[in-house]
Amino acid sequence: MSLTTTLTLSNETEIPAIGLGVYKVEAGDEVYQAVRSAIEIGYRHIDTASLYGNEEGVGKAIKDSGIPREKIFVTTKVWNDEQGFEETKTAINRSLDRLGMDYVDLYLIHWPVPGKFTDTWKALEAIYQEGKAKAIGVSNFLPHHLKELFKEAKTKPMVNQIELHPQLQQEETRTFCQEHGILVEAWAPLGKASYFDHPVLQELAKKHEKTPAQIIVRWQYQSGIITIPKSIHKHRQEENVNIFDFELSDEDMAKMAGMNEEKRIGKHPDEFDYGM
């Protein structure tokens, strides 16, 4: 088990179980150095988005790393004001230009914009057929969004990236996705480090001689959740993924499950300001 350990999407595409998220990492040198150091450590999965404004630095860092493009899994996302069929077809080309790539490994709808996300999905299906994305999926979709999408979709999403951490475990959405062959990916997987002092995390960190962050990443890994912890610091990038030399017991996993409070850091998808 290592950073190259993968999970298999419904179309047989392999996705590294752990990656680097670059939300709010500044464009230019900061994101370039963060991605370069992550790749040097062994990360082979980088998650960016049109919204982040740093696709260019991500692409340059991957190119300069010397690692063959096909060895690195790259995700980007179409933002809310780019949604709609034709708009999304244009948006992927902008992202590919900024990344300096012919394709991305995973292209996601960033949020379920009411009245638009089904047309956006049809564009993703076309992008997938054209080979501009090796896999397609959604982000921040709840079961009712997915049910609406299924009515018109020819291809089901392969991934649903949602806010997911010990205090927001989203069991209903995870169960629905599992029933439909959709892998779940966690954003804000460490809960923005806002409750590392929680007694359960402290207890398990002491027991396994690990950090709270490592306990969380291990819990997600054992739960079959793709996770993309963010850090711009090399030592923290190393620490976050040093999780392959221990295992959480069933009792440990039960304690982690008991941390759930359905407590969000970000917006609920049904309460997001879509500018409608």
TrEMBL record:
Pfam families linked: Aldo_ket_red
Ranges of residues in domain NADP-dependent oxidoreductase: 18-260
Keyword Oxidoreductase attached: yes
Keywords: NADP, Oxidoreductase
Region forming the signal peptide: none
Entry annotated with the keyword Hydrolase: no
Organism domain of life: Bacteria
InterPro entries in UniProt: AKR, Aldo/ket_reductase_CS, NAD(P)_OxRdtase_dom_sf, NADP_OxRdtase_dom
Coiled-coil residue spans: none
Family that this chain belongs to: Belongs to the aldo/keto reductase family.
Matches recorded under PANTHER family: 2,5-DIKETO-D-GLUCONIC ACID REDUCTASE, NADP-DEPENDENT OXIDOREDUCTASE DOMAIN-CONTAINING PROTEIN
Official protein name in the record: Aldo/keto reductase
Organism field: Gracilibacillus xinjiangensis
